[in-house]
Design goal:
The protein has 547 residues and is an alpha+beta fold. It has four domains: 41-224, no CATH class; 335-369 and 513-546, no CATH class; 373-447 and 505-509, no CATH class; 450-501, no CATH class. The protein is built from ten helices and 41 strands. Strands 14-11-13-12-16-15-7-4-20-21 form a ten-stranded mixed β-sheet. The chain is globular, with a radius of gyration of 31 Å. 39% of the residues are buried. Mean pLDDT is 86; it is low at 1-20.
Length: 547
């Protein structure tokens, strides 16, 4: 659980630099994108810049430049913790003094030499003075500049070292610096020398240096990013890494990540406006983590500088400041890959009715690779996927569609098991089976236990399961029984065996995605047919306005 201090700090950050886009719509000039957080948090990583970098810290609502790094071009960042260094590799460990380790073990205890200094220059003078006493001295910033020494394993090591230092320089003050899990180390990646150690609770920011009027990018985990990298380390967590940049620069990467940059420019413009809306409306979903949006499809796909393309950049620039509103309020501009021919009413997918998310004909999406698809699962696979979500129905006995929307999407799916029966509504079954496996909720369901019984009308047949059927003869009603899981049906010409309990379930579906709002393949088709981006957006978002 994050501290109240952190919550206030985040509000300070996010309240800075808002521009008024339209009369009642405020849009932030910068946006914070979480690159690593939660289970993906990093404890050791590198940052690189071709032009060098500046290291800043947030104090009293504004960033303060702490250190200018001309060289090295690559720095290593890690938590101030216990590390085992062996065979050229290092890993964070839960240190136990009595344990045996291969290689070197370093720890989060330090010695402060001298006092607290008003600026880095004063601290550097002390650092130069004591470098003859110990080579392992470095700058630290924690409510002022300090000079610290070494990476000791515990207090006793520090006290022993202080005795030695006092013999060399008795005129200086020495004190033990105890561990704090929010501290991070910034290390010269070439030499391994610790350059700076600071408390990251208050936002440590790294920006690329400007050289000859040009600003380089920053590289993190093999990807280059515009803007700056912010690092925060919270108690009982590793380092959260955030990319802070302008909203338009963010869209430069999002648009080609969400839609092929080779598509028609009007489709790209529609995607740019929809992505801008989506970002603005959903910005608060990661407040608890210290940033606005994540970089995955949970928010919008964002892949940094390498994903950018001149076509999609042109689309973002051409629609700069454009948003979609309904009754003067920003809309949640949902979008998806392909509808299969018709989009859906919002209440049939996620429960809540939204006036501007109405099902519309989407003929221009037809011809996409996702028009039709088939997925086959057996009973064991279905049981396993349900179990992964904590649903235990026993052995699967049957799966049936109970209800569909007027456009054909499944709104209720019944799953019967040997222990229990449950009904999954709307998108729930997709979240369980996987959104890439079950591409949409517009599907028909077939099994290897389906039989068709013809009525009096020659061309009419009713689908059913052998487990629910019986035979009516002159002697009365007889339930169909089989040996094991099979029942044989004898016709005029042959006998065919059917499963009583289905073993295979075949989903024959249409489209890809939730089916709400703009269909991307539909936008592509409309653009190619001569529609501009405003008409495209106003088709998919009913009675909404592009302004």
């Amino acid at each position: 659980m994050k501290s109240k201090k952190f919550a206030v700090l985040y509000l300070v950050i996010t309240s800075v630099m808002f521009m008024i886009l339209h009369a009642d719509i405020a849009v932030p000039e910068t946006i914070r994108i979480g690159l690593s957080f939660g289970q993906s948090q990093a404890n050791i990583f590198t940052l690189a810049s071709e032009t060098g970098m500046n290291i800043l810290i947030l104090e009293k609502g504004s960033y303060k430049n702490l250190l200018e790094v001309k060289n090295p071009k690559v720095v290593k960042v890690r938590r101030d913790e216990y590390y085992n260094i062996a065979g050229g590799k290092e890993c964070e460990i839960n240190y136990v003094r009595a344990a045996k380790y291969e290689g070197e073990v370093v720890g989060p205890y330090h010695i402060q030499i001298g006092g607290v200094y008003a600026n880095a220059e004063a601290a550097l003078q002390v650092l130069k003075q004591v470098s003859s006493i110990t080579q392992s001295v470095f700058l630290a910033y924690e409510e002022g500049w300090r000079v610290w020494s070494q990476l000791y394993l515990d207090e006793s090591e520090c006290l022993e070292q202080i005795k030695i230092m006092k013999k060399e320089a008795s005129d200086l003050k020495y004190s033990v610096v105890y561990p704090d899990k929010k501290r991070i180390q910034i290390i010269d990646n070439t030499t391994g020398k610790l350059m700076l150690l600071l408390n990251s609770e208050g936002n440590v920011k790294v920006t690329p240096k400007e050289v000859n009027g040009k600003v380089s990018s920053l590289q993190y985990k093999g990807k280059k990013y515009r803007g700056s990298i912010v690092m925060q380390s919270f108690e009982e967590s590793d380092v959260t890494v955030i990319n802070e940049l302008s909203l338009d620069h963010y869209l430069y990467s999002v648009v080609p990540s969400e839609m092929p940059a080779s598509w028609h420019i009007e489709a790209l413009k529609a995607q740019a406006v929809a992505a801008r809306n989506f970002a603005l409306v959903t910005m608060g979903r990661h407040n608890a983590h210290g940033f606005d949006l994540c970089s995955t499809e949970h928010c919008q796909a964002y892949n940094g500088l390498a994903q950018e393309n001149s076509n999609s950049t042109e689309a973002v620039n051409a629609t700069k400041g454009k948003v979609i509103t309904y009754n003067g309020v920003l809309i949640s501009a949902f979008y998806h890959s392909s509808s299969g021919g018709h989009t859906e009413d919002s209440e049939n997918v996620w429960g809540a009715k939204t006036d501007y998310i109405r099902g519309v004909e989407d003929k221009f999406s037809l011809g996409s690779p996702h028009d039709n698809w088939t997925v086959e699962l057996n009973r064991a696979e279905l049981k396993e996927k349900l179990a992964q979500f904590g649903v235990d129905l026993g052995e699967i006995r049957d799966v049936r569609i109970l209800e569909c929307s007027k456009f054909g999407r499944v709104t209720k799916l019944e799953v019967k098991g040997s222990k229990d029966t449950t009904v999954f509504e709307k998108e729930k079954i997709r979240s369980i089976l996987g959104t890439r496996l079950l591409k949409s909720i517009w599907y028909d369901l077939k099994t290897d236990a389906d039989v068709f019984v013809r009525g009096s009308i020659l061309n009419s047949a009713e689908k059913g399961r052998t487990s629910n059927m019986y035979v009516v003869s002159a002697s009365g009603k007889t339930v169909v029984k089989g040996k094991g899981n099979k029942v044989s049906v004898k016709g005029m010409n042959d006998t065919k065996a059917y499963n009583v309990i289905p073993d295979k379930y075949t989903f024959d579906g249409k489209g890809f995605g939730h089916g709400l709002g703009m269909s991307q393949y539909g936008a592509k088709g409309m653009a190619e047919a001569g529609y501009n981006y405003q008409k495209i957006l106003e088709h998919y978002y009913q009675n909404a306005k592009v302004q």
